[in-house]
Structures are given as structure tokens and as C-alpha cells.
Design brief:
Layout: H1 2-15, E1 48-57, E2 67-77, E3 82-93, E4 96-108, E5 115-131, E6 149-165, E7 168-175, E8 192-201, E9 207-218, E10 221-234, E11 243-253, E12 257-267, E13 270-279, E14 289-299, H2 306-309
Antiparallel strand pairs: 1-2, 1-14, 2-3, 3-4, 4-5, 5-6, 6-7, 7-8, 8-9, 9-10, 10-11, 11-12, 12-13, 13-14
Length: 317
């Protein structure tokens, strides 16, 4: 029964063209480490070629529960003041599959040592596939259920802007721009608007920390999310400064969800992470959600802005 209910929810949320059932952005708990999923301006990271990947399993133990994967690569080229990126995001839930390949370009408006601003655009396609032959309906004659296979491919685009100083990040972005004001939500992800404010501090000797607030809006639904994270480090006595060891964070959403995030620095440029979600909403599935993350940074002379900024401990986040 639980499997049939999950399939029914997947079909309704995918096939209905009513605003109430419009598709939400693919959920990821580790977006506090990588904002590129919803803000293409954030790939203007300097100093290295950046690789990021995560996988997410929701509602562990439920057949047909959502599974998400995400792979991203980007690099900033200092001489062009530009960043280029590729991403592939996919989700499988019940009888439906979604794939969202994108290419991203971001332009860095300033290389000032005290502040930076960038703008970015992602373009690609959003692919939705429904295998109705797998649907287990209680009433086989239900006209609202489609029992054949369907695939829809639509163009897709995201736009974002980001301002950074040594201690603050201000980010604003909009995803799935081509569905903006489109009354037909069939197979499409709905346009989302994001606003982020992050305070970060790397001055303490034993740890770095940040505190962030995100506001997400789609149609008439607004969700607030707050995050606090500490990244512990140890002194090395070297010019490069202390070595980051591990981090721990906590996130709470106004949709009555809480997330614990853990990360371990295998080396100075390689980090693995884990996130666990749980919900406190009445009637919502209480099975935990697990997410694994891999982050790799490859130092790059083409990306470096340290000599231009005259700041050995460059602050870009």
C-alpha cells in the first residue's frame, strides 16, 4: 500500500497541470557548500578547478522513494574574468525520472581585494520521463492515470547574482526561467526565486564558522532555511596557515525539517561529507534521508587572483 501511495503521489505531482502540484526544485541538503545548483554566479570561485558531487536517498526503506545525483565541474579563468562550468542533476521517484544537464557561464565584475561581484547564467534542458507501465493503481479504469511511457524535453535556464566581501555573501537567483508565468506546468519544474545571506568568519585560531539564511519562493509557497556550520582546524606553523580538519553544521527549515551536516578534510583540497535529514511535520514520512558529498579542488594558476588582490589568504567562499 505504501508503495502504491508513493507512486500515486509521483504521478499526480508530475502529470497535473494545476499550480498546486507544480514541481519543486530537486532537494539537496549540502547546497550550503555549493550554491551552483540554484545560483550560477557562484561558480566564479578563484584559485582552483572545482569539482563537486553528491548523491541523496530520501525516505530510506520506502520503495520508489526519491533518489538524487549531482555532478558539477567549474573553473575560473582570471585573464578572462570568467568562469565556465558543466553540471548534471538527476532524480528518480517512483515511476518518474528527471534529468537536468546544464552549461554555466559566470562573469566576475570585480577582483577588488575587499569585495567581489559576479553574475551567471546556466542553460540546458530539463528532461522528464514517466513509465506508466509500472504504475500500480487501485482502480485500473481511473482516467487521471496514464499507463504508457512518456518523455518530455524542454529548454531550461537559471540566472543569478552574487556579492561577496571578506565576511558576507549576498546571493539572489532564479531557476527554470522559461517556466516563468507559464500556466502549463506539465512536466516542468516551476520557477523558483532564491535569496541568501551568509556571514562567515575565518579569524578564530581553532575553527572557521558561518551562519546563513535562505529564502525560497515558488508560486504562493515560501520556505525559510537557516544554517550554522563550524569547520575545525589545527595550526601548522607554515606560511599557508592552519589546516582544516572537519566540520559540523545544523540546518532548520520552516517546513519543519532539520538536517545535520558532517564533513572531513581528507587533504587540504579533498573533502567528503554526509548529511542526514528528518522531518517533524505531522503525516509526513518519518524515514530518514541520507546524502553523501565529495568536493575536490585542484589548484590552478589560470584561476589564481592572489597576486592581483595582494592577499595571501584569499577570502572567496
Amino acid at each position: 500500500m505504501r508503495q502504491r501511495l508513493l507512486y500515486l503521489l509521483a504521478i499526480i505531482s508530475t502529470m497535473s497541470n494545476q499550480t498546486l502540484f507544480a514541481q519543486a526544485d530537486i532537494s539537496m541538503a549540502t547546497h550550503w557548500y555549493n550554491r551552483a545548483n540554484y545560483n550560477p554566479a557562484s561558480i566564479a570561485r578563484t584559485e582552483y578547478l572545482y569539482l563537486f558531487s553528491n548523491i541523496r536517498q530520501q525516505w530510506l526503506g520506502v520503495d520508489g522513494a526519491p533518489k538524487v545525483f549531482n555532478v558539477q565541474a567549474s573553473e575560473y579563468i582570471h585573464n578572462m574574468r570568467s568562469a565556465f562550468g558543466l553540471s548534471l542533476v538527476g532524480e528518480k521517484i517512483g515511476v518518474t525520472q528527471a534529468t537536468n544537464p546544464m552549461v554555466t557561464y559566470a562573469y566576475r565584475l570585480s577582483n577588488n581585494r575587499d569585495w567581489s561581484m559576479s553574475m551567471g547564467l546556466s542553460a540546458g534542458v530539463f528532461v522528464r520521463f514517466v513509465d506508466g507501465t509500472l504504475f500500480e493503481a487501485e482502480t485500473l479504469s481511473d482516467p487521471a492515470v496514464l499507463y504508457d511511457k512518456q518523455e518530455t524535453i524542454r529548454p531550461d535556464a537559471n540566472l543569478g547574482f552574487e556579492y561577496q566581501s571578506s565576511h558576507f555573501v549576498f546571493s539572489i537567483s532564479s531557476t527554470h526561467l522559461l517556466s516563468l508565468n507559464n500556466p502549463d506546468k506539465l512536466f516542468l519544474n516551476t520557477n523558483h526565486r532564491y535569496l541568501d545571506v551568509i556571514y562567515k568568519n575565518e579569524n578564530p585560531v581553532l575553527f572557521n564558522y558561518h551562519a546563513g539564511l535562505q529564502v525560497v519562493n515558488r508560486n504562493n509557497l515560501t520556505v525559510l532555511e537557516g544554517n550554522v556550520s563550524f569547520r575545525f582546524k589545527r595550526p601548522t606553523g607554515l606560511v599557508k596557515g592552519p589546516r582544516e580538519i572537519f566540520d559540523i553544521g545544523l540546518t532548520y527549515r520552516s517546513s519543519h525539517q532539520m538536517t545535520v551536516l558532517l564533513g572531513v578534510n581528507i587533504s587540504s583540497n579533498l573533502r567528503v561529507g554526509y548529511a542526514y535529514d528528518t522531518s517533524y511535520s505531522t503525516g509526513y514520512n518519518q524515514n530518514g534521508t541520507h546524502e553523501m558529498m565529495l568536493e575536490l579542488r585542484i589548484p590552478s594558476k589560470a584561476s589564481s587572483t592572489r597576486c592581483q588582490c595582494q592577499n595571501l589568504d584569499y577570502w572567496y567562499y
